[in-house]
Amino acid sequence: MRKIISIVAAFVLVGGVIVLSLDSKVSISAASFMQEAIYEGDSPGYVYLMGIEASEGDDPVAAGRQIIQKNMEVNEAYFAGDGEYQNYRIVQDQRLATVQQPYGCFLGEEACMDLLLIGDDYLSLAKIHRTLIQRYKSFKQFDHFRIMLRPSIYEGFPPYHYLSDANKLQLMQAIHLAKRDNLAGALHLLFDELAFARKQMALQDNMIGKLIFLSMASTSLDVITALQIEYGFQNTDDELPPLSVEERNHYQTFAREFATFYSVPIIENNFEEGDFATILLKLFYKRNRTINQAHLYYKKYAKASLLDTDSFVAFLGNDTQDIGSDWLLNPVGTYLLKQSQINLSAYIARMHDFNAKMAIYNALLRAEKAGKALDFSHAIINEGVFENFVNPYGEEYGNPYLSASSKMLCVGGPFDDEKNLRCLRICLSCSKQQID
Predict the structure, then answer these.
(1) Which of 311, 312, 310 is nearest to 391 (CA)?
(2) What are the tens digits of pLDDT across the range 283-341?
(3) Which of 114, 153, 174, 433 has the most CB atoms at less than 10 Å from its CB?
(4) Tens digit of pLDDT for each residue in 241-288?
(5) Which of 29, 28, 34, 26 lies closest to 255, judged by CA?
């Protein structure tokens, strides 16, 4: 009897080990979602941006295609298991110059916006960076953008900072024009920048690009508002529409984040076949189960990014941020997922934050049209300026209030606003008083 029990126990043990060591297949849904991030055609906008940093006199298109071809070859070899991944870029000393400090700062920071608004160095900087400005204007003509490389954790992103620098120069030009009694010309340039940034938000298939253009749209609106409060409003009937689904959605960007997660090297490759560590790893880590589990998380938030603000707020009220777990069959994979988990809701919220910023701007237009005094120099909001204001996030997040520095009007929202996407710049000359 004991012998039979021992044999049965041995079979159960072996069977359990076999079951524990079996991995599932990548689900059809996960494979389909991953495919959203892969583009095998040509993208002239992407090609141009990859070559935008080519030295003066070189062709950005030719440089971009050369860089992409080299990266494609490395990309293919890496995924075939032949060699390490390496990002090719134009050699450092052959790149087009970028805008240097102090104007090389990030405009989402209040001190940087201070510098931009009080500075008057546009003409000298425009002369230095005339090639960058021209290339920026050329890039603005493209209506298509898709990354042509397969997603990878080692992937180098396009040099978006050149676009940010050029956008900053355009804002400086607008300020230069407004200070010389050409507010109409300044606003025409600024609204063109805002429209361009929003168009690009709809085209971007990666999170970095989408957030770069969101920041450009936000700072363009800051300058639009500061100049109009300083010099007078124009076209008060032209309220800004909220971001469209195409502009705010993260479906492709989260698909690319997920595909990047899938590209993580197979950790089993770091162990010798047959050794004890490999056996334990196969028992407690299932790569495909991990991928399938991660896909459900990324796809849930990709769908949430399509929601309007009211629906998104309702989604947040029921969201547990749970990435799921499979501690029995895939404990190592579950642990790795939880350690690498990203709060994707916060990235979605940035789009709705900008809607709140535009709501403040629209309220100022209505107040100006109604004859309300828009003088914030005494650090107070005059009565009636925000009468009937509707915070896109709901009444619980309140009406606009003055920031601690009194340079911005802000509204509340579900997440911290580190990039001032819910805050609107309201003064030009106050920056000089603050610095002095």
Answers:
(1) 310
(2) 677 788 888 888 889 999 999 999 999 999 999 988 877 776 666 677 777 777 777 77
(3) 174
(4) 999 999 999 999 999 999 887 776 655 555 555 555 555 666 677 788
(5) 34
Residue count (the chain): 436
Asked if omega into 102 is within 30° of 0 (cis), the reply is yes
**Closest-CA residue to 64 (of 76, 74, 49, 86):** 49
Q: What share of the chain is helix, strand, coil (3-state, %, to 5)?
A: 55, 0, 40
Tokens at 430, concatenated: 């106050």
8 Å CB contact between 359 and 50? no
Q: Using CA atoms, how far apart are residues 77 and 32, in angstroms rounded to an integer? A: 23
- Give residue-wise pLDDT tens across range 45-83: 999 999 999 999 999 999 999 999 998 888 777 777 666
Amino acid at 41: G
Q: Which residue would you say has higher pLDDT here, 279 or 391?
A: 391
- The DSSP secondary structure of 212-247, one letter per residue, reads HHHHHHHHHHHHHHHHHHHH----TT-PPPPPPHHH
What three-state secondary structure class fits 383? coil
Q: Using an 8 Å Cβ cutoff, are 367 and 374 in contact?
A: yes
Partners of 424 in the beta sheet? 409
